[in-house]
Amino acid sequence: MEVNSSPFKIILGSSSMPRRKILAEMGYEFTVLSADIDEKAIRKEKPEDLVIAIAEAKADAIVSKLRTIDGQLGNAEPTILIAADTAEAILNRLPIGDDIKEADPTVLITADQVVVYEGAIREKPSSKEEAWQFIKGYSGGHCATVGSVFVTNIKTGFRKGEWDRVEIYFHEIPDEVIEKLVKSCFHLMVVSVVSVFGMVSYNITTSYIPFQVEEGTVLYVAGGLIIEHPLILPYIKQVVGTMDSVMGLPKALTERLIKEAL
């Protein structure tokens, strides 16, 4: 896809490689901004309420961070900020400060996702053993992903979040495949470090390199579920919904909320 020629920039803050891949597929060039919160401190009974609440908390944390940093945006172009999950980027200095009301529109987008299995909410597995149990439970059955996208226009105060749900049905998954999934490496997108407004950030391309995650990539995703993983793909029976939503960032919802916020 051709690079989006929109007058705004996108800044992504996420440890989620699939979300970065999705934004690249949408034609955006983007850099990275981090957001870190204690997600476990936020509890809701309904998965839809939980993912919205966590995404909103991420937005609050980033807005607070931005408002306390000295400096001015100056003549910078309108910027979209995107944050999701525990981020890798390190924020050195992003000038917004007291002149935010004078600045061009800045839209903050946060996201979160959980897996629902037999009515129970599953977040990231706490261990390899739990990841194994999660995936074993999906074998021959089904689960659902519930993901949120939350937008905040920092200049106008506009805030809106919505969620998307996808049902996933599985064939029987052999134990040896589950074992490989828990221990496997996965292909990550090529990331190059750049600096924007004095901030360490990352440009994302659609190329891939092998990257070994010591305890298994499935430990870093909700429900230990990576249906795009080459080991699990043959055992996917049916997906009722979109793959981009399963991967953490529904394209249509994201595009619509961006337009509503601007």
UniProtKB/TrEMBL annotation:
One Pfam family per UniProt: Maf
Keyword terms of this UniProt record: Hydrolase
UniProt keyword Lipid biosynthesis present: no
Annotated SUPFAM superfamilies: ITPase-like
Superkingdom of source: Eukaryota
Xref: InterPro entries: ITPase-like_fam, Maf-like
GO molecular function: nucleoside triphosphate diphosphatase activity
Designated name of the protein: Maf-like protein
Organism: Dipteronia sinensis
